[in-house]
Amino acid sequence: MREEGLEEVENLSGTFLEGMEESIAGSIATAVYEGTRPLLLEIQALTAQTVMNFPRRTTVGVEGARLNMILAVLERKTDAQLGFMDVYVNIVGGLKPEGTSTDLAVALAVYSAFHGKVIDAGTLAVGEIGLTGDLRSVRNGDRIIREAARMGFRKVILPEKNAALIADPPPGIRLCGVRAGRPVAAGRC
Q1: Reduced to 3 states, what is the DSSP secondary structure of residue 27?
Q2: What digits encode the pLDDT tens for the residues 5-27?
Q3: pLDDT in the model for residue 69
Q4: How far is Cα 175 from Cα 126, in angstroms, rounded to an integer?
Q5: In whole angstroms, what is the distance from residue 5 CA to residue 59 CA?
Q6: How far is CA 30 from CA 53, 86, 107, 114, 182, in A?
Q7: Residue 148 in 3-state DSSP?
Q8: In this structure, are residues 124 and 147 in contact, taking their beta carbons and an 8 Å threshold?
């Protein structure tokens, strides 16, 4: 809003990704489809040994029940033992997106924080995680990929069904279609 009236924000994704130039453990980019366009944003996670009998689950921007479900799937399907860990998850910028397209990014950020493994800053992840650990497609995946390319991302991790629909990804983007937690074509990821 300006004195002259409303003004369009031309690079909204850029404002939510500010500071992501470095690769840091516990941080990854994701995307949601808001209104008529994709919006890229950063998910941050931190895990720490709990000092109480009951571990804390603190979240800003991600629904608490959704985080608990993602953590339960992570414990069941990976080597991340989070039962005695405090887990903090934040969507940078205070945005509270609706939907489940950020599930995969939340899981990867928590896993990265738990193991201290850095995720390349040029990686974006989208996808809904089911209770069985399967990865479900997101709507407008093609538009999200185009926005990721425009913002300089080099790799997009997404559900296999979304990746299969993209016959010709934008130049410089590598798609990593995933099914049930495993890359479909390991050479592509």
Answers
A1: strand
A2: 665 555 555 544 566 567 889 99
A3: 96
A4: 11
A5: 35
A6: 33, 23, 11, 19, 19
A7: helix
A8: no
Structure tokens at 117: 């493994």
Say which residues have a Cβ less than 8 Å from residue 115's Cβ, sequence separation at least 6: 25, 80
Phi, psi torsion values for 175, nearest 5 degrees: -95, 135
Task: Give the lowest-confidence range in 90-94, 113-117, 126-130.
Answer: 90-94
Provide the residue count of the chain.
189
Q: Which residues contact 167 (CB under 8 A, 6 or more apart)?
A: none
Contact (CB, 8 A) for 138 and 162: yes
Predicted pLDDT of residue 35: 80
Give the residue from 82, 80, 72, 81 showing the smallest Cα distance to 103: 72
Tell me the residue ranges of DSSP E strands in 99-169.
123-125, 128-129, 135-136, 155-159
- The per-residue DSSP string of 65-109 comes to HHHHHHHHHHHHHSS---TTEEEEEEETTS----SSTTHHHHHHH
Distance CA 38, CA 65 (A): 25
If you search the block for the tokens 């979304």, which residue do you land on?
162
- What does the alpha-carbon distance between residue 140 and residue 35 come to, in Å, rounded to a whole number? 11
Distance CA 22, CA 164 (A): 30
Q: Of 89, 101, 153, whose CA–CA distance to 126 is shortest?
A: 101
